[in-house]
Request: fold
Amino acid sequence: MPTHAEQRLIGYTPEQLFDLVADVAKYPQFLPWCAKAVVRSRTETELVADLTVGFGPFRETFTSRVALQYPTRIRVCYERGPFRYLNNVWNFTPDASGCLVDFFVDFEFRSRLLQNAIGVVFNEGVRLMVSAFIKRARECYGPPILPGMRRGGETLRHSES
Reply:
């Protein structure tokens, strides 16, 4: 049951970061573990997508329903695939120095083999994922737009279990 919570202050607007995270179809272009993304349906407030993730010799596809509360929150609800459950939430709060991003993920695979395999690389994988989103923001929007921001933002709080 890997869990990861992280809070970062990032020098982009909540709208920019929301749009970047909500653009699920482009995940294979920049997320190292995402092999394929198919958005099955999308409205202003919700999307349903199939993601194929691969790590090591494992490759799994899962479906999730994503609630979009522009520009403050994205909540991923698992529908079907290799997990017992998957909870993922992004919160975007405006701040004088940019956007305070709260990220949380918690999941468990049905397969004990997959659960054990991901447990070994989970923390590093999540760090790579968060870094990939920050790098993608720089690619899409240029350098952080607000003064006083370090490149990529500043980690304020971070917890894992």
